[in-house]
Amino acid sequence: MSVDEALPEVQELTEKINYHNNLYHNLSRPEISDYEFDQLLNRLIDLEKKYPELKLPDSPTQRVGGDITKNFETVTHKYPMLSLSNTYSKEELRDFHERVIKGLGHSDFIYFCELKFDGVALSVTFKDGLIEKAVTRGDGTRGDNIITNAKTIRSLPLRLAPGDYPGEFEVRGEVFMPRKVFNRINEERIDIGEEPLANPRNSTSGTLKMQDSAVVASRNLDCYLYALLGDQVNYESHSESIQALERWNFNISQTYKSCHSIEEVFGYIDEWELKRLELPLETDGIVIKVNHIKYQQILGYTAKSSRWAIAFKYKSESASTRLNGITYQVGRTGAITPVAELQPVLLAGTTVKRASLHNANEIERLGLRIGDTVFVEKGGEIIPKITGIDEIKRSSKSEPVKYIKECPQCGTILVRVEGEAVHYCPNFDRCPPQVMGRIEHFIQRKAMNIETLGRETIKGLLDTGLIKDPGDLYKLDFETLNGLEFKVFSNKKGDISVRSLREKSAKNIIEAIESSKNVPFENVLFALGIRYVGQTVAEKLAGHFRNIDGLTSASYEELIDAPEIGEKIAVSIEEYFRKPENIDLIQRLKDAGTQMKLSSEHALEGDTLEGMSFVISGVFENYGRDELKSIIKKNGGKIVSSVSGSLDYLVAGNNMGPSKLEKANKFGVKIISELDLESMLNK
Ligand code: IVH
Q1: Are the C-beta atoms of residues 137 and 81 closer than 8 Å to each other?
Q2: Is residue 227 within 6 Å of ligand 1 at its C-beta?
Q3: Per-residue model confidence as pLDDT tens digits over 447-498
Q4: Which helix (H) or strand (E) holds 283?
Q5: Atom of ligand 1 nearest to the CA of 253
Q6: With contact defined as beta carbons under 8 Å apart, do 191 and 447 qualify?
Q7: Which of 88, 101, 284, 418 has a C-alpha 20 to 30 A away from that of 436?
Q8: Which of 50, 116, 294, 446 is flagged as catalytic?
Q9: 493 CB contacts (<8 Å, ≥6 apart)?
Q10: What is the maximum span of the chain, computed from C-alpha positions, in angstroms?
Q11: DSSP alpha helices (H): ranges in 444-547?
């Protein structure tokens, strides 16, 4: 294919992808499956790789990131980004209302009410319908242009469809991390021994400043727009601007309302006080804006904020209750997390019994004593947090909390590395929750994907001594598992009952262990559970060192040189490989046949399959269908959808349709397995 031939396809793909992207992210009514969408995107990525000159600045492939920005350019805002004055009470809001009436000389105006989204403000400029820059608020006058990162926000258009927008304009809005994403990231961070992020807003601002836009893309940020500015923007009211933004396919939260009196505004405040907690993102109040631009101009600005708008902030949901005690959890990495055990109390619709205390410093900072009356608040986290103590209610006899010195699970003396807030239990090999946690980490879907092995079974296998670490899983066989009896604690009282593993479960477990030998190297690396090595870091390490030996023998300097690897991670990796028991584990995993080097998809790129056509059908053992298709394409082969006389190969997996097989036989098409394909590539 020549560049000229590729051009129309690139254009058509771009248009299609933008169309479906908008349907999915802004209108919530997709017309095609995620799989079909990914196929379009992958095709475009492939074409752009082959013909870089065809890669447009608004290409939807930028959504997946990959560009690195070392230093963000500082840009002066054309219109300064002011802040809003705040109020926490309806009385103060009434005062604001009186000031507006006084300023205008009448009360014949309407308010446009919106929710106050808790994220990071962003100002995005469009020129001739094309995104040009995306600048953070900074100090209000100058901010950073984070355009490569902003492009990963899927609901933000990169190019507008033809419409009635001016040649140049700015849209402003709030970039946010949906609660769900925030919780997912924190679960991952805790899993790899990293401190959890404080709240979705901090996570958003941290993410937007990252250098690697591929990492930004993986964080699934989103954005709601709430303002339109520009010399050629002539709408008479804010509501018309919002309508225009909706017309041009910007993402507008459908929570706004026009209010014709201050009473109606109060009604809006009450309406959203609890309903906002069900929204996918954090909000901390509402914003009340005088709707007509003419009136906004009359009211004008103070040095810092506008006189025509105000934020009403909800007091964050807080409750007071008694601190009954502190318990200590031991994580997979041995990290100790103190948890406050509270007298159950109702908070924002749910009963709260426990609160996370993070570490010893937090207990000290709060000055906690058992029996204290504490205030609890709900943030973005799943578990609420203690924000303070009601000192007046403190009993004179209470004493400060003494942090534990020994592991609550195995009794080993805890250690605290200098400069770190967290205590650790160093009994890596024998401390039960650590051993259990490592196996649970190892088998999870994102790692070795042996989730048919449930918690109870793992516990049973550990208790019976059949396994001691993840490497031992590969010694298990069907005969051992089938009918295996182990004890389980069946209730809180600790009653013990005996269970035996059914034939079907035993079979499923053995099958999953077998298939895990094919999960890619980066998953295996992640599965090892090296502290601070999450999925993304594992991918980077796999890509850079290509196989386990390269990584085990890497010096600190070599580790630091790898992309995205900082001091903390490098030290942790070094420490991991210095331990003989870990080297031994890796050897056993290697012997078992797990992937300890990059797969052929990464390793092989070339023209071995040039001129050959392939149909993929069925389910494969070692590869996903997309993966297989991409391998074929990367090696010059062509994927076609139906079997015909001109087809070269049918790659057949399990459960493939009988009609394809029949046709292939009829036309004398060669039928090959995934292994045959591999050997073709390896030749
Ligand atoms: S309008 C003159 N509308 O709140 C009005 N701001 O202190 C300028 N914010 O960081 C802002 N939701 O990013 C407006 N619906 C909304 C908003 C909103 C959140 C943020 C804004 C800024 C802060 C204002």
Answers
A1: yes
A2: yes
A3: 999 999 988 899 999 999 999 999 999 999 999 999 998 887 766 677 788 8
A4: strand 283-290
A5: 15
A6: no
A7: 418
A8: 116
A9: none
A10: 91
A11: 455-463, 478-481, 503-515, 521-527, 535-545
